[in-house]
């Protein structure tokens, strides 16, 4: 079972293209990309093509980084041109950006020149101006206003947008404000709320929240979400997955489903590849000794270096709430693994979410 959860070779691959490596134009205080030891470079057209031709299955592509828009319009055009050549196997194309470099020219490229690719844009914003205070530029200025401008440009082009939010310690008390903010952004259709669980010396950093605090945030938000019928306008993870799993429907979100980590392939410049980018590429790079990427992944998940990740899933086998929790995010648990109290709190926090979700049973 464990190997199937980490990787099923029959499914589409989700490529997370680190087009700008881990380089970025802003300086978010918590960013895990800064910890990765990789060379500064951009993915070249040739490297992208080499990767795409070595994939047997269909693919979902996300332009990522660092900051993907840092590569500039001409380079973006060249990479999209390669994607377009392989469009028979591309299921969808997404851009995950901090929004600060987004403008009408990028919009024209995404929605006019490459209209047929149906590109979707998701922008990172941690909530209100106050909640977003760790997302700053290199002068220490909050990026909030620029991000709101980016949503407005998308709206002007008639495009819906996604949002990725990281909830850190100082944001816990702003649940109501968070709900107000997401309702104010007219074209928002999808939101993913993630916790800040950064670990240093095996303990959570001062800006991080604890697993219990995160579940409390999600429960409070969940109550507002239902009371104010926000679900009619915006799909919010992990609430959506919790409702799906408690009602016996399969969630599509890796944290709550049985397809995790090695189905999300991070591609760095020079064709360096790894599992989901929440893991450090320095810990889990994938060896490429056969031609097709799918075969390389299948081989790699049998290697000894994956054993610590598999052990996490072994622990879930006896768990009463496995069908609801499905093991959670394995990178979070991996970085908690040397702190027994934190690992236990992670599972307790999932049990708390399970108790809440029971009320959402239809
Ligand atoms: C690494 S960024 C890359 C794409 C782009 N620069 C952006 O900010 O959307 C992708 C997402 O990872 C999130 N992220 C970065 N560091 C994180 C951390 N330590 N914990 C949780 N999420 C983090 C960011 O907030 C962002 O939503
Ligand atoms: S914008 Fe994205 S890549 Fe850049 S520092 Fe912030 S989270 Fe990291
Ligand atoms: S590390 Fe977490 S976010 Fe990444 S694929 Fe695995 S479960 Fe999903
Ligand atoms: S609660 Fe803990 S043991 Fe149970 S499925 Fe979730 S992560 Fe695994």
Please explain how this structure is put together.
The protein has 362 residues and is of the alpha/beta class. The protein has a single domain (2-358), classed as Aldolase class I (TIM Barrel), CATH 3.20.20. Helix content is 38%, strand content 15%. It has 14 helices and 11 strands. The protein has helices at residues 2-6, 45-53, 73-85, 104-113, 144-156, 175-184, 211-227, 239-246, 281-284, 293-300, 307-316, 322-325, 330-336, 340-358, and strands at 13-18, 59-64, 90-97, 120-124, 161-167, 188-195, 199-200, 203-204, 235-237, 264-268, 272-274. The strands form 2 sheets. A 9-stranded mixed β-sheet has the order 9-6-5-4-3-2-1-10-11. Helix 6 packs across helix 7. The longest helix has 19 residues, at 340-358. It is globular. The two termini are 29 Å apart. Bound molecules: S-adenosylmethionine (SAM) and iron/sulfur cluster (3 copies). Residues 315-316, 319, 321-322, 325, 327-328, 347, 350 line the site of one iron/sulfur cluster. One iron/sulfur cluster is lined by residues 315-316, 319, 321-322, 325, 327-328, 347, 350.
Shape: globular
Structural domains: how many: 1
In whole angstroms, the N-to-C terminal distance is 29 Å
Name of the CATH superfamily: Aldolase class I
Question: What share of the residues does DSSP label as strand, in percent?
Answer: 15-25%
**Quaternary structure type:** single chain
Helices and strands, in order, run as HEHEHEHEHEHEEEHEHEEHHHHHH
Overall pLDDT metric: 96
Radius of gyration: 20 Å
Bound molecule kinds, no repeats: S-adenosylmethionine, iron/sulfur cluster
Count of strand segments: 11
Into which percent range does the helicity of residues fall?
A: 25-40%
Strand order of the largest sheet: 9-6-5-4-3-2-1-10-11
CATH structural architecture: Alpha-Beta Barrel
> Which structural class do the helices and strands define?
alpha/beta
User: Residue ranges: pLDDT <50 for 5 or more in a row?
Assistant: none
What is the CATH third-level topology name? TIM Barrel
InterPro entries: rSAM, Sulphatase_maturase_rSAM
Protein name: Radical SAM protein
